[in-house]
UniProtKB/TrEMBL annotation:
The gene is umuC_3. InterPro entries: DNA/RNA_pol_sf, DNA_pol_Y-fam_lit_finger_sf, DNA_pol_Y-fam_little_finger, DNA_polymerase-Y, DUF4113. One of its GO terms (biological process) is error-prone translesion synthesis. GO terms for molecular function: damaged DNA binding; DNA-directed DNA polymerase activity. The keyword DNA damage applies. This is DNA polymerase V, subunit C. Residues 205-253 form the DUF4113 domain. One of its GO terms (cellular component) is cytosol. SUPFAM superfamilies: DNA/RNA polymerases (SSF56672), Lesion bypass DNA polymerase (Y-family), little finger domain (SSF100879).
Length: 258
């Protein structure tokens, strides 16, 4: 008898994970008293009499892996995009929206510990409004050095928007996509980079504080001025469900009536 078999013989069938009282009694009536007995049953019969979960449990006890660990694939791109609540023609408001999307993409970038080598911006009109002029275009900019600097990303994105924007169109959607993602720790040095190590360290501390404050007190507690003071371009959210577990302002008030 193997070492594993000896241990399984000591485990009562009712103590096996996922087996309740009803199944335990049914299995015992079939002569299955221990985990070792379960491991030797025909998996297909278990699937027919019980379910696929118990079949997999028996197979795992028999040493046959059923749930392999999933290897997390590295992200290839990070996108932030959303339609406007109303079509927009004002460049300044659209630029604010692009800045906001940069901030959302930046959050995901920092959370993953990545840097981006490309910044892509796109704009489009409402394709469902055949009565209006249509326009859809994107632009990609390659950074000299991969970056996770919000100010750098936003500056590049707004520069792209300036070239993409055409007056006379009613825009329905804009978006920002960060691509060419690499681990932040892997950065290629640049002979022409004028930033000293001291400046780089100071900026890193600045954004760590930026991230920490927004994580603790809620998204957009602090943000770049380029996002604007308000968001008249944003989608309406009158019917949005309250975020009771993540936003203090959404917590219900309880009054003492005594």
């Amino acid at each position: 008898m193997t070492f594993e078999r000896q241990w399984l013989e000591k485990i009562d069938i009712g103590d096996v994970w996922g087996i309740g009282r009803q199944w335990s009694r049914k299995l015992q009536r079939q002569g299955v008293a221990t985990a070792a007995d379960l491991a030797h049953l025909n998996p297909h019969h278990l699937k027919q009499q019980f379910n696929v979960v118990l079949m997999r449990t028996a197979m795992e006890l028999a040493g046959i892996p059923c749930n392999e660990l999933e290897v997390r694939e590295p992200k290839k791109s990070i996108m932030s995009s959303k339609s406007f609540g109303e079509m927009q023609t004002d460049f300044a408001l659209i630029a604010n929206a692009v800045s906001s999307h940069c901030a959302r993409a930046y959050e995901k970038l920092r959370r993953e510990g990545l840097s981006a080598q490309y910044v892509t911006v796109f704009v489009q009109t409402n394709r469902f409004r055949a009565d209006l002029p249509q326009y859809c275009k994107g632009m990609q900019f390659k950074l000299i050095n991969a970056s996770d600097d919000l100010m750098v990303i936003t500056k590049i994105a707004k520069r792209c928007l300036k070239q993409l924007f055409k007056p006379g169109y009613s825009y329905k959607k804009v978006g920002v996509c960060l691509e060419g993602l690499i681990p932040k720790t892997f950065k290629q040095s640049d002979l022409f980079n004028q930033l000293s190590d001291e400046v780089v360290q100071k900026k890193d501390k600045l954004f760590k504080a930026f991230d920490s404050i927004n994580t603790r007190f809620g998204r957009e507690t602090i943000r770049l001025a380029s996002e604007g003071a308000s968001k008249p371009w944003a989608m309406r959210a009158e019917l949005k469900s309250p975020a009771y577990t993540t936003r203090w302002t959404d917590l219900p008030f309880v009054r003492n009536l005594t």
